[in-house]
Design a protein that fits this description.
The protein is of the alpha/beta class. The protein has 10 helices and 16 strands. The longest helix has 20 residues.
Length: 403
């Protein structure tokens, strides 16, 4: 249980967030109905900047491209805490039958970024009301393009969003995790998400005369099959890794032997040595298959975000204060997730932690996964996230107050 130093300030924050919960829901639903794709965000950052500016915060737009940074300066000197939320949507046609369904054809908030943004905006409003009692500063980082490489975090950092920041906190609303649960993890919590592409060039021919051709589909099928043995037979069972082939494109007609086959996939790892080994194994496999069949290949490997690696002290602080949130039923250590997140770049620059806020409605037998056309989450999770991050912010700043 967190110590209750500054209990009046902490309780004031909780009450303020309760008061503004309906506004938080309204903001989320507006953003959900008006999504914008990664690197195409125009109206969303304007909306965010106007909200902070109307509160009275210092606002900088166009950070790193399309990012927004707002600064709240407390009434007393102290440290600086950064809080981050992403705001881009995905190229998915929404299938939910809800009043706030996406108005943009083929674009949907299918990962909870609308909720992340609403959470941070209302937290800023609540903290601003008690700014005179805050020791230090709070920086609100609203990031564009989390979903698409190279992401928005790195250019925002290069443009100074972390200048003067001592610590950073962030969360992801997680639909598969029950409402009321907070999941934390010291060390690596999310993986490095890389991409690879292999094109096998054979020799086309008539379907009735395979002996006069080099069948790229057969070679591609061999490649896909043997890729499955990389993790199971080439990587230590004590290491985490995933290799998935998600696309296979080849052929133009049923009776023509394909001369070319292209496969695309993803690699998820936590350890740099495993990452390097898998990249080598993927190309070595393509070479051996093609060399044995008189075919050629092209191989590209694109590195995604680094793993998200949490810092111990900040993770412990977050886990501690989460128990002071009335709606939190359980705080537990989670297993690492194989998804990727460019929050990793922030944690490479300053100490901090990234955690999971459960967002599955108690009445849902199953929850549609992130990036699904029927994805949704229990909006009460936003309030839990705001309270957890808010308390962590105040507790951290109070620790260094007057020191």
């Amino acid at each position: 249980m967190a110590t209750r130093k500054g209990v009046h300030t902490l309780d004031s924050l909780l009450l303020a967030l309760d008061k503004y919960y309906e506004e938080m829901v309204s903001i989320r639903r507006y953003l959900h109905a008006n999504p914008e794709l990664s690197f195409e965000e125009v109206n969303t950052p304007k909306y965010i900047a106007n909200f902070h500016r109307e509160l009275g915060l210092e606002v900088r737009e166009g950070v790193g491209g399309r990012g927004v940074v707002a600064v709240l300066r407390g009434g007393k000197p102290g440290k600086t805490v950064a809080l981050r939320a992403d705001f881009d949507a995905l190229p998915i046609q929404e299938e939910n039958d809800i009043p706030y369904k996406s108005k943009v054809d083929g674009v949907m908030h299918a990962c909870g970024h609308d909720g992340h943004t609403a959470t941070l905006l209302i937290l800023a409003k609540a903290l601003y009301e008690m700014r005179e009692s805050i020791c230090g500063n709070v920086v609100f980082i609203h990031q564009f393009a989390e979903e698409v490489l190279p992401g928005g975090a790195k250019p925002m950092i290069e443009d100074g969003c972390l200048d003067g920041v001592d610590v950073i906190f962030g969360t992801h609303l997680w639909a598969p995790t029950p409402l009321g649960e907070i999941h934390v993890k010291n060390g690596a919590i999310m993986a490095a998400p890389d991409m690879f592409e292999v094109t096998i060039q054979g020799k086309g021919g008539h379907g009735a005369e395979p002996h006069n051709a080099v069948d790229a589909i057969v070679l591609g099928a061999q490649y896909v099959s043997q890729v499955q043995t990389i993790v199971s037979r080439r990587i230590s069972p004590l290491k985490h890794a995933v290799v998935t082939v998600g696309q296979f494109e080849a052929g133009k007609a049923y009776n023509i032997i394909a001369e070319k086959a292209t496969m695309k996939g993803t690699v998820r790892t936590f350890d740099e040595d495993v990452r390097i080994q898998i990249e080598k194994e993927l190309e070595s496999l393509a070479k051996s298959i093609c060399d044995g069949a008189n075919a050629t290949y092209e191989f590209t490997y694109t590195r995604g975000y680094p793993p998200v690696v949490n810092h111990p002290e900040e993770t412990a602080l977050l886990a501690d204060v989460a128990m002071d949130v009335p709606e939190v039923k359980e705080v537990k250590e989670c297993v690492p997730l194989m998804v990727g997140e460019d929050f990793a770049y922030y944690l490479q620059k300053v100490p901090g932690t990234f955690f999971i806020t459960g967002a599955k409605h108690p009445d849902w037998e199953t929850a549609y996964p992130h990036h699904h056309p029927k994805f949704n989450f229990d909006e009460r999770a936003m309030l839990i996230a705001a309270k957890t991050i808010g308390l962590a912010t105040l507790k951290y700043l109070e620790t260094f107050c007057n020191k």
